[in-house]
Automatic annotation (TrEMBL):
This is tRNA uridine-5-carboxymethylaminomethyl(34) synthesis GTPase MnmE. Keywords: Hydrolase. It comes from Antarcticirhabdus aurantiaca. The gene is mnmE. Its EC number is 3.6.-.-.
Length: 445
């Protein structure tokens, strides 16, 4: 029989309330031992909680959720205790001293929910993202997935693949032998093509999903002394980077994450770009160029008092890497030093000294991040999903490429494609296929 598991399910102690959950076949017996009697299912009721020797441990709310309609799918008891370390430790000690009960491993409650068919893998991933979400957009995307958004999409695709395959299999399982090898029906091919296009559209959101997850990367770059580190400190509202009047102060890449438009926006302060004989600074310059290459946006700073000309500045941008030039926001910095900042060639003028232009800069960053992240309620696309969908797509491309495929081969390719999808949700199952075939083709007669 399956173990019964116990763990503190709420956050760090001490806290106002600690929620301890007990899940598994012994949950009812254990909860009765500790709480005396159990309230009606799904009702909270106050109980004295006693240890194995009958000594009082605490007084708190007790709930009982009979399986399979519980969060884990097993019998589940919940204790709301006073959130002190000693209280929780003593409770867990008393519970685990009862037979059949042990401490839960990391993620084990969710794992049981999956094993018991309460949630699929994408919903489990959504739950874990929901716990990790730090910004509003991350929270919304995670909730969408935890609530089954991705599961429904992938299951719909899987069902359609199953249909197409069932139709093909029928053509060789149930036709006269002479018909075998006629190639795949045009209607089935068309259905698969529509499906492939839908997967492509979903895959095209990969870059947006990555921004949601990994953050929108902004490289603060420019010539030495442009005020890059000063800007980083101003936006972070703390002294993250060393600022001095000495050009070439920054060498390491420094990172600060802001929450803008509900998205994580990662700012990287970099070494000023210039030719240098100093080997340490040269490494810093190399890292600065690499950071620019990987950035979603380059914030190119050019100080109002700098001798650097427009053309030279753009040369730096061009020199920043071999790849595509990155999207760039050109900022005239230290605007307080110029009588009238020549904004024309720049997108924005700022002064860290006076604070001028900083709000406009933040608004511009938020707008860029928001545009890059795409529609606010699009389903998130995770790396694991992307990998599986790319494989699914590859199989469908094989299917599309050869119009004269033997039905047996075509069915096998679709089986592979569906397998990849099934692994996404963790519900690959041949019984499904049999069900579709038999229900559609009235085998029983
Ligand atoms: N007047 C004025 N001075 C500024 C402003 N921002 C920065 N400075 C000064 O410019 C100098 C260089 O600033 P940093 O922030 O170190 O410049 P940096 O671009 O990080 O320099 P490196 O790391 O050496 O490339 C410092 O003395 C700052 O106090 C500003 O808005 N106005
Ligand atoms: K400096
Ligand atoms: Mg610096």
């Amino acid at each position: 029989m399956e173990d019964t598991i116990v763990a503190l399910s709420s956050g760090a102690l001490p806290a106002g309330v600690a929620v301890v959950r007990v899940s598994g076949p012994a949950a009812r017996r254990v909860a009765e031992r500790l709480a005396g009697t159990l309230p009606e299912p799904r009702r909270a009721s106050l109980r004295r909680i006693r240890d194995e020797a009958g000594a009082m441990l605490d007084r708190g709310l007790v709930l009982f959720f009979p399986g399979p309609n519980s969060a884990t799918g097993d019998d589940l008891a919940e204790f709301h205790l006073h959130g002190g370390r000693a209280t929780v430790a003593r409770f867990v000690e008393a519970a685990t001293s009862l037979p059949g009960l042990r401490l839960a491993e990391a993620g084990e409650f969710t794992r049981r929910a999956f094993v018991n068919g309460r949630i699929d893998l994408t919903e489990a991933e959504g739950l874990s993202d929901l716990l990790a979400a730090e910004t509003e957009r991350q929270r919304r995307a995670a909730l969408l997935q935890a609530e089954g958004g991705s599961r429904r999409l992938f299951e719909d695709w899987g069902t359609r693949l199953l249909h197409a395959r069932a139709l093909i299999e029928a053509s060789f399982d149930f036709s006269d032998e002479g018909d075998v090898g006629e190639g795949v029906d045009a209607g089935v091919r068309a259905e698969v093509a529509v499906l492939a296009a839908e997967i492509d559209a979903h895959l095209s959101g990969a870059a947006r999903g990555e921004i949601l997850r990994e953050g929108f990367r902004v490289a603060i770059a420019g010539p030495p002394n442009a005020g890059k580190s000063s800007l980083l400190n101003a936006l972070a509202r703390r002294e993250v980077a060393i600022v001095t009047p000495v050009p070439g102060t920054t060498r390491d890449v420094l990172e600060v994450t802001l929450d803008l438009a509900g998205l994580p926006v990662r700012l990287f302060d970099t070494a000023g770009l210039r030719e240098t004989a100093d080997p340490i600074e040269a490494i810093g310059v190399k890292r600065a160029r690499e950071t620019m290459e990987r950035a979603d946006l380059v914030l190119w700073l050019d100080a109002a008092d700098s001798a650097e000309t427009e053309a030279a500045a753009m040369l730096h941008v061009k020199q920043s890497g071999p790849g595509e030039p990155r999207p760039t926001l050109r900022v005239r910095s230290k605007a307080d030093l110029a009588a009238a900042a020549p904004v024309g060639a720049y997108d924005l003028a700022i002064s860290v000294r006076t604070g001028a232009g900083l709000d406009a800069l933040l608004a511009a960053l938020a707008a860029r991040a928001d545009a890059a992240a795409g529609a606010a309620d699009a389903l998130p696309l995770q790396a694991r999903h992307r990998a599986a969908l790319v494989e699914t797509r590859r199989a469908l491309a094989d299917f599309a490429r050869a119009p004269d495929l033997l039905p047996e081969v075509a069915a096998e390719i679709l089986r592979e494609a569906a397998d990849r999808l099934g692994r996404l949700t963790g519900r690959t199952d041949v019984e499904d296929l049999l069900g579709v075939i038999f229900s559609r083709f009235c085998i029983g007669k």
